[in-house]
Amino acid sequence: MKIRKATLADAKGIARVHVDSWRTTYRNIVPNTYLNQLSCEAREQLWKENLKANNNFVAENDGGEIIGFADGGKERTGKYEKLQGELYSIYMLPEYQGKGIGRSLMKKVVEHLKERGYNSMLVWVLEENPSRGFYEKMGGKKVDRKTLTISGKVLNEIAYGWEDIDLLKN
After folding, report:
1. What is residue 9's DSSP assignment?
2. Starting from the edge strand earliest in sequence, which strands make up the sheet with 2-5, in order?
3. Which of 1, 21, 35, 130 reaches 20 to 30 Å from 99, CA-CA?
């Protein structure tokens, strides 16, 4: 397994992980009408744009296949004075979850944030996400909550924060 900085050529692999992980992680949480319309082709175009920010990392298996990704940067709302950085997304194919790869991806994002002078971070996660405990195990503290609507269904999101990313638990 290898963690590295993502390149534009990784857009297709990232899109596949994004769509596959959404369909498995959020089944019975997010409406099937939304999950079923997700397309790797559309996500690939989205990721071609997102990758221009140069804040993305991928995990590859021994065969060079992308099995996970994460990205992060400046906290997007400016609402959280003590939380300067943000983990925008972190996704892993289901068969690779629970093996420490997500932790390694998160550490890469933390290094990236620290290089940019951010010493704190938050992440938004759906309350019903079965992987939510990952952030708690990493020492994240609940700092806020909000709702969002996907295909007519109102969902709760929780923000986990780390006021000092040097204290992230391993």
Report:
1. G
2. 2-5, 56-60, 66-74, 85-92, 121-126, 153-162, 141-150
3. 35
Instruction: Quote the CA–CA distance of 58 and 50 in Å, as a whole number.
Output: 13
Q: Which of 39, 170, 23 is nearest to 91 (CA)?
A: 23
DSSP single-letter state for residue 77: S
Q: How far apart are CA 113 and CA 1, in angstroms?
A: 23
DSSP per residue over 84-124, as a string? -EEEEEEEE-GGGTTSSHHHHHHHHHHHHHHHTT---EEEE
Residue-level pLDDT, tens digit, the chain, 170 residues: 999 999 999 999 999 999 999 999 999 999 999 999 999 999 999 999 999 999 999 999 999 999 999 999 999 999 999 999 999 999 999 999 889 999 999 999 999 999 999 999 999 999 999 889 999 999 999 999 999 999 999 999 999 999 999 877 66
* 108 within 8 A of 3, measured Cβ to Cβ: yes
| Burial environment of residue 165 by CB neighbours within 10 A (0 to 12, 13 to 18, 19 or more) | buried
